[in-house]
Amino acid sequence: MPSNYTGLGIQLMTTGEKAGTWGTLTNTNWDIIEQISGGYVVQTLNTAGTGANTTDLSVSDGSTGATLSHRAIILGAETPETITGNKIVTIPIDVQTFYIIKNSTSGVFTVEFKYITGSGASITWATGDKGYKILLATANDGTNPDIVDATADFVTADSTTTLTNKTLTAPKFADGGFIADAGGDETLVFGEVGTPVNELKITNAATGSGPILSSVSTSGTDTNIDININPGGTGVLKSGTAAVKIAGTETIFVPAQAMFGTTTNGADAQAVETTATRPEMKVLDFDPSTIEYAQFSIAMPKSWDEGTLTFQAFWSPSSTDTGAALIGLQGVSVANDATSDVTFDAAVDVTDNGTGTVEDVLVSPVSANVTVKAAAADTYTYFQVSRNATSGSDSFTGDVRLLGIKIFYTTDAANDA
């Protein structure tokens, strides 16, 4: 009986045949086996002509060099081969093996890999797919065998793979990379900056303790590291359904009842009855022709950043005039065991107009920045309110009846501990 051949071209010699040539033929078989087990080859697709065509990968019985016998095949060229039509690549119907194949073509055309005959399943690279596929030539039917795409069962650069009980060591996410939920929607998105040294660390905890989210420095150069949590737009940082208090702008309202007219040129304390048993206004009256003053004092919150303040004046007109009134505020802080005989920084005025109606409640615009002289933590701060009545810009002809002052200050701590 003469020799016969496997589907991939290995020669199967009959006992007693090929006397004197077994060594050469066996070495050739070993070369073919090496080719099958790990060979790599490039197969151009324009050899049968440009445009749409078919390239048949045939077996070389008893000799090396058959493209189909290589495990890894580059279809096209090392540098992508330009194709001008859809390509078909075929293998003989009895070939049973697996391949790692890359579509290395350029051009918006498909490349199909299939058995030479039959209606079994084939694999096609779409026009934009220029990647690798792991294929199984099954030879599972004598007439209509299937080519199976096994790529999805392996982890590749382009695969969508579910990993179970796997340890990821130093996984990396590009700027804008994300972790998605089961539906593929973004759950956690990553951003990056140049030369980062500070990072978040999440630590689990035993029973009775909460997990820890902390900021750490990979370089060891930073010791005091903030954690910035920034809600989008006008969003609010919450714990459950309740807003979380964060450092930022805070307010203190000081009513006129908590103030007093100064000994020199002091504003007059008055009670203005609207209608009996209705709201009664406790005010400080500031004269339209003389600069008058009132004062109040606050131990500012420890969380205050000791920076500048702004304020709004709440007042009521004593007449129907609609002119402009200039209401000012100035401040100075006094430390422990220091004298109160100190001067204020210059007053900052805010301008507001009468509305033509007596007993209206008027709220001024927010002022420009007010600098508190000698501002520091754990100090006692004096404030002085005035009406700049002698300024040419103050044209309101009645008394300014001060109802109170709202101070806006900025905190740099979440509490006063």
Task: Explain what the structure shows.
This protein is mainly β. The protein has two domains: 4-153, no CATH class; 251-410, Sandwich (Jelly Rolls), CATH 2.60.120.260. The protein contains one helix and 29 strands. It has one helix spanning 22-38, and strands spanning 4-5, 11-12, 40-43, 53-56, 72-82, 87-91, 97-106, 111-115, 123-125, 132-137, 147-149, 178-180, 186-189, 198-203, 212-217, 238-239, 242-243, 249-255, 260-261, 268-273, 280-286, 293-298, 310-317, 324-334, 348-353, 362-363, 372-373, 380-387, 400-410. Strands 18, 20, 21, 23, 26 and 29 form a six-stranded antiparallel beta sheet that branches. Strands 19, 22, 24, 25, 27 and 28 form a six-stranded mixed beta sheet that branches. Strands 3-5-7-10-11 form a five-stranded mixed beta sheet, with no helix packed on it. The mean pLDDT is 90.
> Which H/E pattern describes the elements?
EEHEEEEEEEEEEEEEEEEEEEEEEEEEEE
Class derived from helix and strand content: mainly beta
Which percent range describes the beta-strand content?
35-45%
**How many distinct beta strands?**
29
Mean pLDDT: 90
Largest sheet: 6 strands, antiparallel
**Unreliable spans:** none
Query: What is the count of helical runs?
Result: 1
Number of domains: 2
CATH-derived architecture of the largest domain: Sandwich
**Radius of gyration of CA atoms, rounded to a whole number:** 43 Å
